[in-house]
Amino acid sequence: MNHENVINELNSIMMSVPVNATPIEKIRYIYIKVGEVFSYDYYYLENQDTYKIRFENDYIDRYITCKELSQILALMINNLDRENIKCEVIDRPKRMIRGYEENNHVANLVTLSNGEKYILDLTLDLHLIQSGCQTKEFGYTMMNDEDIIPLRECEDMDRKLGLMKGEEYTDKRINELSNRVNQSDFDGMSFDEKIFTKIHYLNSVMFKFRGLQEGKNYIKMLLSRIVRCNFKEFNLRGTNGEMITCYLLSGGYDEQVWYLYDVNKGLVKTTPENIFGMLQNGWDTKSISLDEILENSMTR
């Protein structure tokens, strides 16, 4: 994974905050713009000794964890208007991170001068921001951590502040594709052919993500909304540290098909023999069940 210093990008964001915007609009502006800069550090367990933020050297890494991201967001929001806006880092346990519940997760709490309090969880919105979708974690209130700033209000702010990547959120295109798939006639097609057709739709709304985690979160959303089948994912790591994810899509009656996630091409069809060959030639995985699954798939 390449390290990149994004300090200049963050300074540019601070200088471009709309002067005449309301406090919540300014916070929204920073939230979206910062979400376009960072990627979740998928290797953080291996790199805990790496300093990702060195303010004294004007250095901030692009690949960070929820802790560093929340610290940076708090610093930037606090520099907006210290008299009327306060932002701090808080624990937000039992959030879904990397596909499982993470008890050590942190986010941000914003308090406005009128007493309103909002929770911002930018880490969980990174894949949505970078794909042009509508965010889901901006503006929870402190009451049971359930109420949220209405999505319509967020959309109005995004339009006003020029934060949308197009005329509509990508969600609209995803919904249109989902409806098209629902109305398609798959009679006479094999499971393999059905999945291939649906993946073609999926790839038409794929984006190139810098971070593996953002790409995986986005694919997981598309698989559930467009392809609609059972799936398992497995991470493979190469000798140079590069990582790819392979997906086993399955239906009834032992129907299976394999795909690889390529950051440039989206989901690409593969075979269990190909994945097995990768594992025999330098790639490895932490999944103790993958070898057995591949062996069973190759003997079908």
Question: How would you characterize this protein structure?
Answer:
The protein is of the alpha+beta class. It has two domains: 155 residues, C8orf32 fold (Roll); 129 residues, no CATH class. Helix content is 38%, strand content 21%. It is built from ten helices and 14 strands. The strands form five sheets. The chain has a four-stranded antiparallel beta sheet with strand order 5-8-9-10. A hairpin with a 2-residue loop joins β6 and β7. The chain is globular, with a radius of gyration of 21 Å. The two termini are 37 Å apart. The model has no long low-confidence stretch (mean pLDDT 88).
Brief account:
This protein has 300 residues and is α+β, with helices and mostly antiparallel strands. It has helices at 7-15, 23-35, 66-78, 122-130, 151-161, 170-183, 191-203, 212-227, 272-279, 290-298; strands at 39-40, 53-54, 59-60, 63-64, 85-91, 95-97, 100-102, 106-112, 117-120, 138-140, 230-237, 243-250, 256-262, 266-270.
Overall residue-averaged pLDDT value: 88
Distance between the termini: 37 Å
Please indicate the count of domains.
2
Shape call: globular
List keywords for this structure.
single chain, 300 residues, alpha+beta, C8orf32 fold, 2 domains, four-stranded antiparallel sheet, 14 strands
